[in-house]
Amino acid sequence: MDDELAKHIVVTGFRSASALQELIPLLKEHCDITEYEKYLKAISAVSAEISIEILNPLFNDYPHLKNDVEQKIDKYGKFI
After folding, report:
1. What is the number of domains present in the chain?
2. Is residue 79 part of a domain?
3. How far apart are CA 46 and CA 40, in angstroms?
4. Per-residue pLDDT of the chain (80 residues; tens, 9 = 90+)
5. What is the 3-class SS of the chain, one letter each residue?
6. What is the C-alpha to C-alpha distance for residues 37 and 19, in angstroms, rounded to an integer?
């Protein structure tokens, strides 16, 4: 895989996890506590799997991408 594809996968992984996490306040507001906690746990699990199964292996193979991500998070407070 080349750097460009690896970077695209990293961006997509972050966007996917972020989109799921953005659901949490909406779910909290509109679901009962049992339903909310079920979805909160599922979103947390999926976000962790994205990191463990996709992002971490890519960062091991392409450490410069991890540095780029960390610099953006340091600069902007989030990955953009």
Report:
1. 1
2. no
3. 10
4. 999 999 999 999 999 999 999 999 999 999 999 999 999 999 999 999 999 999 999 999 999 999 999 999 999 998 88
5. CCHHHHHHHHHHHHHHHHHHHCHHHHHHHHCCHHHHHHHHHHHHHHHHHHHHHHHHHHHHHCHHHHHHHHHHHHHHCCCC
6. 18
Q: Any residues with CB less than 8 A from the CB of 41 and at least 6 apart, and which?
A: none
8: Cα separation from own chain's centroid: 13
Domain that holds residue 60: 31-65
Structure pTM? 0.85
In the numeric block, the tokens 């953005």 are attached to 22
